[in-house]
């Protein structure tokens, strides 16, 4: 294995055979699990940023995230059991509390002060369990970048699911920051073929937003059933996407129907979230969510939409995993020159922000 | 792959991703196979301490162990055939005798003196074939550390089997040197829950022994059928375990029944052997044997005992393999600080002896 | 992974665990595919000398070979589609022509001059598609070393097929340069047991030829049906084999029947080609072909011959793959001393020629 590569703003989000690419900052809130995955009395193992973490709930229902490695003889704590508010190691019965401190050793009363596992700050918001993977004291100055609509199922009729990805998380983020791939990757599913111009771009210190407007267009196939609009109806479509943080990308699609009949609804709004947590530099926990403000009472239409999105997002998954696999087979991968075009601006800006964060952390390893 | 790590007495017996851990001394007798596995006319391939070895029998029935690599064009000799006392390579027909010297080349009469494979000293004792993997001249000063009871099936009613292990061999040795894991790993199988105190420990230059006494206890579930003792009968249990060498751990469990009726048997003795041969630093050939002096005429009871032990030892196998797999996924593994407690003393002492042997061999590579 | 090893003429064609062995010169014609594999409208991915290449046909039917990696965002072009004479990337729709230059970007009219993939010179000869993997300007001074009989199915009644090999290509070349393995590897298939003497050898700067004569012998089992000769008929057999280039080995077997009846046929000629293209240093695209001048009208006899050769060549495949696998498991592999005998002369000469080519290319990386 080669040493971790120096990564610069120009570094592509995929590394070749024998190369590591540490392009994930740790002082961030990342989604560790869906809330429903962390069940009372159960232990959930999850690899986050290369490290194994165990999640469980206390008797009061509070989610806890601990380093998944007993400091005694290195057994994964996830092989143990939940005992009250603690996790008990399945090898020799050592117990650890929510703060990570060892609270019980069966064979002696003295507990070494070094018998402690790392405890990660946790926040539960809507359907998501967020974990802070960096210096714990920095967590309190920051809240998970979770859009409000994700907390409001009643208004937004949420659907979504996990779609694990064998590729670097940044390749998914760049994918959703450049939707000119619609006409190729999703030609036979979404059938949106007018995404042919580079977008407007707005950049801040920590986020990148693209904006795209389609005037006098039609309702996309995916929303025909749910909106009840006919395929001949003319609409203006307004889309944007924003990388809120390395952990989450939010997107919007709004339709305004042209020439509405009196009393007819004119506005149809959708939101998307693309949530990406690196398991390793080659594997990503990816969850997608979408919500819309017109599907609340149409379970069948919501199910049709979910299935279409699932099929289409699998097209992205296949593409990104093939790119990762091709890189994994090629030791020269990082030596290739990458050609970028105007439509890549949002992705390149996001990459730059990301690498700045990674490099800042390298320069201040104490934080 | 990183260079082999420097290993010290404090080095845990598991190495992380990309790390090698050479914690096995070569100037030792190791078990290569069960005697019944080396059959006349057959070639048995086995990986010992990272090297492939081929075993076979001469016409007189003597077991031979040779390096499994033809020096001509590197074919595994185990793909060949036994021809009299020799093994014949299956590629070009070169033949090698029990001393490893090439004795026949089909295409010419001259035999290069360099056409020789390594021949390993072999001893067959009871059910086991032992191989000396170090400097051959040192083998004659040493005999395999095989307990007498393993050679005496008539008295000890032996049972046992192979249980290949995807973990470093030393993790199994430490497992059997600290039986305080019984209450957790084997809670639902052995159901021995009184192993809660650190043991007495006796250490010599080359062995570690723990001793544990349980006064006024009961007969363990695993021996109820074979001993015919009722679950209410009170017994004193006397247990010890000793790491005889890196290759083998011997253990004892003796019960003395309290308040016996006149003429009733009072003493019930069992022995165990845990035999561990590194295939590599991450894979172990593990064989377990047990014998007892009261099961000779109870085939059904012996079978019940064997099945219970098999199920319980698979619990150890799962735990140790999960620990190894977690380490294999973590390049930082050897940087973790390990917390030890009093009950770890026998394991830590065994580790120290082992690492002393490894370091002595490094300092004297000629031997 | 260790750095690429220095390879010398004495370097065996197999490298051990963690070792790379770059023993393939690039300024060569290599067979990339069978002609019938490159179909109109389809994209064929093939790994050649460690690099992924995509093959397709233009509207005029000309075969094209391009680097299989879009320079934009690294998608394998083989996931895309053929559009006229171009390949279109399946991710964002960039199009590349037969010369490798980007000819269309959907989102902008300006095409960066760096948007180009490597285009490999191609020649189609008989059943084979040859690709030049080195400096393109050198291709024109060289033609694929394809024997004439491979282009003349009418005379030579060709049969053959692909037999992918998980081993370094040179191990197959050395296998067919030393047929003294017949009596061992093919003892029960070809049953040719008289290949027991080192051959005559003729060496030029770029090729090695062995010659072997068997006087007053019999017709090999494999040709009995096709020739109609009885097993008692005496023949002189004349065999040679020549490594024409790293990519191809040609061989000959001619029988002259002794004591023919008036008007009876006396001469029976066969040819063989062993075509080897490294996919990586551990995997080889291997195709074998054979032709003979007496089987044109005997489809059943040709089929019998093909099946026997297939079974026998699988014996070589098993042996070579086991040797490779044994090396792959042994980090010390290249440190072993190799013992050679007189029968190895052709193989060793071929190895020397090969390594001279590799070292010349290293010394002149510009070519």
Task: Give a brief outline of the structure.
3 copies of one chain form a homotrimer. With 367 residues, chain A is α+β, with helices and mostly antiparallel strands.
Structure, explained:
Three copies of one chain form a homotrimer. In chain A, the strands form four sheets. In chain A, strands 12-18-17-16-15-14-13 form a seven-stranded antiparallel β-sheet. In chain A, strands 2-3-4-9 form a four-stranded antiparallel β-sheet, with no helix packed on it. Chain A has a four-stranded antiparallel β-sheet with strand order 5-6-7-8, with no helix packed on it. Chain A is globular and about 80 Å long. In chain A, strand 3 and strand 4 (63-67) form a beta hairpin. With 367 residues, chain A is α+β, with helices and mostly antiparallel strands. Chain A has helices at 136-139, 153-156, 169-177, 182-185, 221-227, 299-328, 345-363, and strands at 29-34, 44-48, 51-57, 63-67, 81-83, 86-88, 95-96, 102-104, 119-120, 122-125, 128-132, 159-162, 200-203, 208-218, 234-245, 248-257, 267-280, 283-292. In chain A, helix 3 (169-177) runs antiparallel to helix 7 and helix 5 (221-227) packs antiparallel against helix 6 (299-328). Chain A is built from seven helices and 18 strands. The A-B interface holds A 1, 47, 50-52, 68-69, 71-76, 79-80, 88-93, 102, 105-108, 112, 114-115 and B 1-2, 12, 14, 17-18, 174, 178, 180-181, 183-185, 196-198, 319, 322-323, 326-327, 329-331, 333, 336-344.
């Amino acid at each position: 294995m080669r040493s971790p590569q120096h990564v610069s703003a120009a570094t592509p989000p995929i590394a070749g055979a024998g190369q590591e690419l540490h392009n994930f900052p740790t002082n961030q809130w990342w989604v560790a699990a869906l809330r429903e995955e962390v069940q009372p009395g159960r232990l959930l193992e999850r690899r986050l940023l290369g490290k194994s973490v165990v999640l469980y709930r206390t008797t009061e229902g509070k989610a806890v995230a601990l380093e998944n490695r007993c400091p005694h003889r290195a057994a994964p704590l996830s092989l143990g059991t939940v005992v009250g508010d603690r996790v008990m190691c399945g090898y020799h019965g050592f117990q650890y509390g929510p703060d990570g401190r060892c609270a019980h050793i069966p064979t002696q009363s003295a507990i070494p002060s070094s018998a402690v596992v790392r405890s990660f700050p946790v926040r539960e918001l809507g359907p998501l369990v967020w974990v802070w993977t960096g210096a714990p004291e920095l967590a309190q100055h920051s809240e998970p970048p979770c859009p409000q609509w994700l907390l409001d199922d009643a208004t937004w009729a949420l659907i979504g699911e996990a779609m694990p990805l064998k590729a670097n998380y940044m390749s998914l983020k760049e994918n959703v920051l450049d939707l000119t791939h619609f006409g190729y990757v999703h030609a036979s599913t979404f059938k949106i073929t007018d995404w042919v111009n580079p977008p407007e771009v707005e950049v801040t210190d920590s986020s990148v937003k693209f904006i795209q407007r389609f005037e006098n267009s039609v309702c996309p196939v995916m929303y025909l059933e749910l909106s009840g609009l006919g395929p001949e109806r003319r609409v203006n479509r307004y889309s944007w996407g924003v990388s809120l943080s390395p952990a989450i990308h939010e997107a919007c699609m709004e339709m305004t129907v042209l020439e509405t009949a009196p009393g007819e609804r004119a506005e149809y709004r959708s939101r998307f979230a693309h949530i990406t947590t690196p398991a390793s530099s080659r594997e990503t926990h990816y969850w997608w969510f979408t919500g819309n403000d017109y599907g609340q009472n149409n379970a069948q239409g919501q199910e049709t939409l979910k299935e279409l999105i699932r099929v289409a997002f699998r097209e992205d998954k296949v593409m990104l995993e093939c790119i990762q696999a091709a890189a994994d087979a090629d030791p020269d991968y990082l030596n290739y020159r990458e050609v970028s075009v105007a439509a890549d601006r949002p992705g390149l800006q996001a990459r730059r922000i990301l690498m700045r964060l990674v490099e800042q952390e390298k320069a201040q390893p104490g934080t």
